[in-house]
Design a protein that fits this description.
Chains A, B: This is Dioxygenase. Chains A, B: One of its GO terms (molecular function) is dioxygenase activity. The structure is a homodimer. The first copy, chain A, is α+β, with helices and mostly antiparallel strands. The first copy, chain A, has helices at about 5-15, 25-45, 45-65, 70-75, 80-90, 165, 205-210, and strands at about 130-140, 150-155, 175-180, 185-190, 195-200, 215-220, 220-225, 235-240, 260, 265, 270, 275, 280-285, 285-290. Chain A is built from 7 helices and 14 strands. In chain A, the strands form 4 sheets. In chain A, strands 1, 4, 10, 13 and 14 form a 5-stranded mixed sheet that branches.
Chain lengths: ~290, ~290
Amino acid sequence: MSEYNQDGITRDVLDAFAKTPDPRLRELMTALVKHLHAFAREVDLKPEEWLAGLNFLNATGQISTDKRPEFILLSDTLGLSMMVVALAQARASQAKGATEATEATVEGPFYWAGAPDVELGSDIANGATGEPTFYMGRVTDCDGQPLAGALLDVWSGDGHGKYDVQLSSEPSMQARGRFRTDAQGRYWFWSIRPNYYPIPDDGPVGDMMRATERSIYRPGHLHLQVSAPGHVTLTTQLFVGGSPYIDADAVFGKRDSLVVDFETHPPGKAIDGREMRVPYHSASFDVRLAPATA
Amino acid sequence: MSEYNQDGITRDVLDAFAKTPDPRLRELMTALVKHLHAFAREVDLKPEEWLAGLNFLNATGQISTDKRPEFILLSDTLGLSMMVVALAQARASQAKGATEATEATVEGPFYWAGAPDVELGSDIANGATGEPTFYMGRVTDCDGQPLAGALLDVWSGDGHGKYDVQLSSEPSMQARGRFRTDAQGRYWFWSIRPNYYPIPDDGPVGDMMRATERSIYRPGHLHLQVSAPGHVTLTTQLFVGGSPYIDADAVFGKRDSLVVDFETHPPGKAIDGREMRVPYHSASFDVRLAPATA
């Protein structure tokens, strides 16, 4: 019964978890043990590799703070975060018509609740450096019906790839804002064109990226969280078409359907009538929300 | 190419690791990503479960110190440590005859290098509380030929399940010693009968054990590391037959072949001639070492 050949070990561990009262926790631990043991067997894991792995996890925990969640970064760079997002969207899309909804992607670590509510057409850059960009689009349901009063919560880094919270220990909000769509479901605002940037690479995850010769960069992107009554709240990103690293996102958040062409314009009167004395870009991005299930 | 359906995510992550220069690291990361993603898909991992898992790993790193390696405890309680031991022994046993070698098990966290070299027949208890026990056996190769001068490094907790290092911040060694076998490969010494004890349960691993209603105890056992020139060094444990929790070792280290019957004797002249004024036990355990490969 307790013979410890390799299969026997796995069986004994599964037996030990079999009495877990909560059925979901039991399911999670059972699957975790199966895959963990299968991994070790498949690679014939050596003691020194096992220890290196545990030391890596330990260092990941030790370097972490509230402001630096290194395990989330590890999850991001292993594609696990994106997998969890995709699974959640797959569940939501079981609702009728939801397969036509805009694709979700990872939220990232830079969301800051409480961005100012501003008028449509406002410039939310608030001093963020970068090339001016006019953003516009419509929020609809999956049948293309406009959603009036939908809430857009928008945030991005600046034209140098830095977020406000990275620029100062007491930052003021830049390139962040909340809008409500008009009666036709439309939104429009000004900000800057976000640039690509590196993920934090001075910790264990950075060591992993170097040892595996992976790129540490994320392509330029603008974050959106879009919500409307009766619909599934969408957390996604709009990616800057042609950005460096557009096909090598270090956290696997980029989806082809979210890449937007940024059109460049000479100085002059912009689409909303604003007089621009410098060249600027425009980007159009429509959002389709899935119906909430009852 | 970068379509982010769930299979697409896994493929993209594997592609990202494909350029890893070191072939073994590439193999490890590839298998890790496959199993990690397969786990998430299999259980349809929810965002709040994902976050709870990352918070658990983070807490495991944060509580860890040199003296409290919580990730090793986690590995132990998930049976991964024992799996790595079993895989190592399977590799060693590919040498001719090695399948007859004594089974290995986990080293545990309480090894203390530099235990005193003592004469055969010594009492190594050195003040450790517990019932006196006479240990004896032979060290041979896999053909049963005695190995003279084999080194045994022995350590255990006491009769209350405590190791010396747990009893004081500046402990002196108790229930630890190193011997060399005599010309017939024999060893014998006195110590105490080790008792069962709980693993540290005031951290994340303890939380896991409670949530899954698992036993946190290890059955009584004595650690041995046995080495001889030309042979694979063996790290194993001798388990006290009939100990509480003998069939529920929290770290899955117990093997049936390592369980030893502790015979109880009335006061009187012991096997080695020592006059015992209290009841005592005796335990006999032979060790067979695998030949080292060239």
